[in-house]
Amino acid sequence: MRTLGILLAVLTIFAGGAGLTLALWRRSGPILAAELFGLAWVLGAGLVSALLALAGIGLSGGVLFASVAVVMLCFGALGVKRLREGVRIETGFGNAPPWEKWLSVVALIPIVYIATMTFRDAIAWDGLLIWEAKARHAFLAGGSLPAAYFSDATRVRFHPGYPLYLPFTELWVYLWVGDCDQTAVKAILPIFYAAAITILWSATLRLGGRLWMAALTALSALFVPYMAAHGLGLLQGYSDLILATVYLAGVSGLLAWRLKGVAGGWPVAVACAALLPWIKQEGLLLLASLILQAALMHGWRRWKRTLLFALPGIVTAVAWRIALHSVHVAEETTFQALTLENLHASLPRLGPILLFMGIQLSRIESWSLLWFAVPVALLSLAWQRRREALWLAAALFVPLGMDVLPYLLSRLDLYFHIATSLDRLVLQISLVGVLCLGLALEGSRKPPPSGGD
Amino acid sequence: MSWSGVYRVFWISIFGALLAVGAPTIVKSKSSLPLVERGRDSSVNSVLLQTLGESEVAPRLTEWLDALPRGRPILVLAAPDHLSASITADLISYLAWPRPVVVSTDREQSQKLLRNFREHYSAVGLCYLPSPPGLTPGKSFGPALTFILSEPPPE
């Protein structure tokens, strides 16, 4: 029964997500099967969590569950309709030589490895107390979190104001299984990892053009220890790699649209941008970075389109803040208020912050050689006068630069705060870092086609 | 070899180095918190096994917390600067939801709260703290977690 429940929860997420992805994929060429898999999962999880949160305001129990299931299936039907209308799905193998096709198998190694590790570790610490707790408590309350949950001052350590993307995806599994079964929820965590790898593989293939490069890039993600086996990651129920995946999908969607004329990349990037603040607070920083990249790609003349790009993400962030305000959310005050006076007073901390950040980024046991290789990759791309060099640099350094701000305003011991949190912030941009390596591997290319519209 | 060939070899070497440097960490990685069972409370039980040394605590603890008189919060006092104690306290709060659970890890504040806890709380849990003299321990979940009831259980 538990297995069937998990299976149906997963299938409805894929159905709704695939429908949404195919609906967004308009006026474009074929979508890659791996790309559809990854996007269907991350967008499907966004869709189901948002539906549960919205419908949960007025519905509960079986009615809530049935209503959301019906909407997810309707999105699935929309996907089937889009396929009948002629949206094509392709493997991406095309006319590649057989050795490249066979080499593509190595891209599956990270997915298989993480799948085998799924039940090794328990959901732990923040994964349990911040994320899964929301799913469990919503399940016990009939499918939604009561207003009292957010204003409970005795549980402020559980961060009631954190967004509900991962918790309500887990809640969806609980609703299907009929119990808050923590083993059942573990089963969906490696699917997020598989989505990360398939999006990375597809992005490298779309932007780089060669199967062997995409396979090598996807494989290399496994060998960055903090992404795979650091003990405070996806399999322990943390949401940072999910944020990294959606950010990668947004960045690569924009690049595919601008560099390869893939019209469907733009709306997919908009959807990913809208999801970022729904996954974690730091999603706001990544949203700002994605909007900046969109502004750079659109240029001044198309500012309206940049505004259109930004709007759904801003609406998500503002709506969530209004919702939290309306339920009088209890929040911990780890940071000083963002005022010019406080910023000025904190400026002497900037030097130590940058030094500590440098030390954390250079830790081989966490990042292998990733952050040594990424600057070389960006320089290679810039030297080849490839346009993505500037956009990828912005995608990496803008969020990293903005990460300095919380440390400037932190009330905690500076070294303790950086040592215990920076790696997770860096993880959120690390998949884009791996993509840079994959694109640098390609070398100089012929003049690209003009950008899509 | 052409320039593009040299360039490719350079980048493949970088990928090779990335893999070679990262592989030992991945291969040697061990679980910091092994999942010890399957089922409803599998992860909570795994954490509590590590912090209390007791297995399958979560269902027993939930049942006991559910049976406490409603209307008043639960007080949990954890040993200061003791990671296992503070995690156990947080998990009691997690399992007792939606009942309010006040957690204190500060020695002075804990002593202050303990002085007249009977007036405000339905029970006090002591994580890695000895039972204060004069108070009879009510229920224990291993040697590191003891609860004292505000009112004696009905006969």
Can you tell me about this structure?
Chain A has 453 residues and is mainly α. In chain A, 71% of the residues lie in helices and 1% in strands. Chain A has helices at residues 2-24, 33-55, 61-84, 98-103, 109-117, 125-140, 147-151, 165-177, 182-186, 189-208, 211-220, 225-228, 240-260, 265-279, 283-298, 303-326, 340-346, 350-361, 364-367, 370-383, 388-402, 404-408, 414-442, and strands at 31-32, 89-90. Chain A has a two-stranded parallel ribbon with strand order 1-2. In chain A, helix 1 (2-24) crosses helix 8 (165-177), helix 2 (33-55) packs across helix 10 and helix 10 (189-208) crosses helix 23. Chain A is globular, with a radius of gyration of 21 Å. Residues 448-453 of chain A have low confidence and may be disordered. In chain B, a hairpin with a 4-residue loop joins strand 4 (139-140) and strand 5. The model of chain B has no long low-confidence stretch (mean pLDDT 89). Chain B is elongated, with a radius of gyration of 24 Å. In chain B, strands 2-1-3-5-4 form a five-stranded mixed sheet, with helices on both faces. Chain B is built from six helices and five strands. In chain B, 48% of the residues lie in helices and 14% in strands. Chain B has helices at 3-28, 42-52, 57-66, 83-96, 107-115, 117-120, and strands at 74-78, 101-104, 123-127, 139-140, 145-149. By secondary structure, chain B is an alpha/beta fold. The N and C termini of chain B lie far apart (91 Å).
Helix content of chain B: 40-55%
Task: Name the largest protein-protein interface in this structure.
Answer: A-B, 55 and 43 residues
Mean pLDDT of chain A: 92
**Percentage of residues in strands of chain A:** under 5%
| Biggest sheet architecture of chain B | 5 strands, mixed
Coarse morphology of chain B: elongated
Please identify the structural class of chain A as seen in this structure.
mainly alpha
Radius of gyration of chain B: 24 Å
Strand content of chain B: 5-15%
Number of helices of chain A: 23
User: How many individual helices of chain B?
Assistant: 6
| H and E order of chain B | HHHEHEHHEEE
Helix content of chain A: over 70%
User: How many strands, what sense, and barrel or not for the largest sheet of chain A?
Assistant: 2 strands, parallel
First and last CA, distance of chain B: 91 Å
Radius of gyration of chain A: 21 Å
Structure class of chain B: alpha/beta
Q: pLDDT below 50 for ≥5 consecutive residues: which ranges of chain A?
A: 448-453
- The strands making up the biggest β-sheet of chain B line up spatially as 2-1-3-5-4
Regions of chain B with pLDDT < 50 over 5+ consecutive residues?
none
